């Protein structure tokens, strides 16, 4: 009897340690996968509702706007009210967004759903990332870095598979995500709360944006490559599936998800190795590799061949991941603990503007000159930004040596 009671107490005990880390990682993957799930569907939405590439990129960009709004307002709320309440609220908002996707019958419905989804994802990722660090301080940073590319790949590939294999192709993935979110909402109650409530919750909702003086030069130096990295992600998450079809003539639903997965996963496997390198070396390596990767993609587009586009995407994806890590590791150590929130806010504003504004401009331009010509201009601009970043890094290193 005592053994049975002990096993029941153990089964009902709050999750902490490895169990909590596993659940938090899976939940974060769910949110990131849901964020990339619409990408392979954009072409289907265009076919059914006949909207332009400019509208398509707007549907994508409102997600970034909602996510940025959440990071700037409720990003630190879980430090005051606890991780579990914020996470439960984010799951509830995400579930509503999934319901709106299921019910959507026009672009207006997609825009509303995508905006709400962005806010829910921003609230969830801030709480989940902090909770992962609470549960595993040794591996938490690495898990946070790996979950994002893995989640993006899972969402894109799962959607592509469901379009082919399941009924209701434009809605099935959201029904599946709703079911997963319902399970996670129940299981959140099993998590051990790692934060004691403390005052200042309402004050924390007011955005704090400030770049410390000692970080301003570094922020300016990394801006060209940071803009290039986030603009590349914005293009792939919005227009890449349409570009594949126009450049190669292939209508395979798998290609749209596969191209996103190739970008996000190509550098994820090397991330543990990259993290051992010094920040300037990671940044230079990523920036250097990004240039030939983009050039190969552009060549594949003009050759109308799928293989070079995917090869170039894999090469660019490695540079994309490395440059992303390098920018963060170069910038964040320059801020004192009480300055990090303001610096991160400035960094995220720059990053999500770079993710959304160029994509919207590309959608508008594609309506006038076509998607392939727009891709040439877009890719050329990203290559120019990367070369500028390398030049700035060389000048900075020369000054430091002198």
Automatic annotation (TrEMBL):
It comes from the Bacteria. InterPro entries: MFS, MFS_dom, MFS_trans_sf, MFS_Transporters. Pfam families: MFS_1. It is a multi-pass membrane protein. The keyword Zinc does not apply. The keyword Acetylation does not apply. The chain crosses the membrane at residues 50-74, 86-104, 116-134, 146-166, 172-188, 218-239, 251-270, 282-303, 309-332, 344-365, 377-397. GO terms for molecular function: transmembrane transporter activity. Keywords: Cell membrane, Membrane, Transmembrane, Transmembrane helix, Transport. Its main location: membrane. It is found in: Cell membrane. Residues 19-402 form the Major facilitator superfamily (MFS) profile domain. One of its GO terms (cellular component) is plasma membrane. PANTHER family: MAJOR FACILITATOR SUPERFAMILY MFS_1, RESISTANCE PROTEIN MDTM, PUTATIVE-RELATED-RELATED. This is MFS transporter. It comes from Siculibacillus lacustris.
């Amino acid at each position: 009897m005592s053994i049975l009671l002990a096993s029941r107490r153990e089964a009902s005990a709050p999750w902490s340690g490895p169990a909590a880390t596993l659940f938090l990682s899976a939940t974060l993957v769910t949110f990131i996968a849901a964020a990339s799930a619409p990408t392979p569907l954009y072409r289907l939405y265009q076919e059914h509702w006949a909207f332009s590439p400019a509208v398509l990129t707007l549907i994508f960009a409102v997600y970034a706007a909602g996510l940025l709004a959440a990071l700037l307002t409720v990003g630190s709320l879980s430090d005051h009210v606890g991780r579990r309440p914020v996470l439960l609220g984010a799951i509830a908002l995400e579930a509503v967004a999934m319901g709106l996707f299921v019910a959507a019958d026009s672009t207006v419905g997609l825009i509303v759903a995508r905006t709400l989804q962005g806010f829910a994802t921003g609230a969830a990722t801030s709480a989940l990332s902090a909770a992962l660090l609470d549960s595993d301080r040794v591996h938490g940073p690495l898990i946070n870095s790996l979950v994002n590319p893995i989640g993006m790949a899972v969402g894109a590939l799962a959607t592509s598979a469901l379009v082919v294999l399941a009924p209701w192709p434009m809605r099935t993935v959201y029904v599946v995500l709703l079911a997963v979110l319902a399970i996670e909402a129940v299981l959140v109650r099993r998590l051990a709360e790692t934060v004691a409530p403390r005052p200042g919750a309402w004050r924390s909702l007011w955005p704090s944006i400030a770049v410390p003086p000692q970080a301003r030069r570094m922020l300016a130096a990394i801006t060209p490559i940071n803009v290039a990295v986030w603009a590349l992600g914005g293009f792939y998450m919005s227009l890449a599936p349409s570009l594949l079809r126009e450049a190669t003539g292939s209508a395979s639903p798998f290609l749209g998800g596969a191209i996103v997965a190739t970008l996000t996963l190509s550098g994820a496997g090397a991330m543990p190795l990259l993290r051992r390198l010094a920040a300037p070396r990671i940044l230079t390596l990523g920036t250097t590799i990004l240039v030939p990767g983009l050039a190969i993609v552009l060549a594949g587009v003009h050759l109308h061949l799928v293989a070079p586009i995917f090869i170039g995407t894999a090469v660019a994806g490695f540079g994309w991941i490395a440059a992303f890590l390098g920018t963060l590791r170069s910038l964040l150590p320059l801020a004192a603990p009480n300055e990090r929130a303001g610096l991160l806010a400035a960094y995220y504003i720059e990053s999500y503007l770079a993710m959304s504004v160029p994509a919207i401009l590309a959608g508008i331009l594609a309506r006038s000159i076509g998607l392939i010509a727009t891709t040439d201009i877009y890719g050329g601009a990203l290559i120019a930004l990367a070369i500028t970043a390398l030049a700035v890094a060389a000048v900075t290193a020369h000054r430091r040596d002198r």
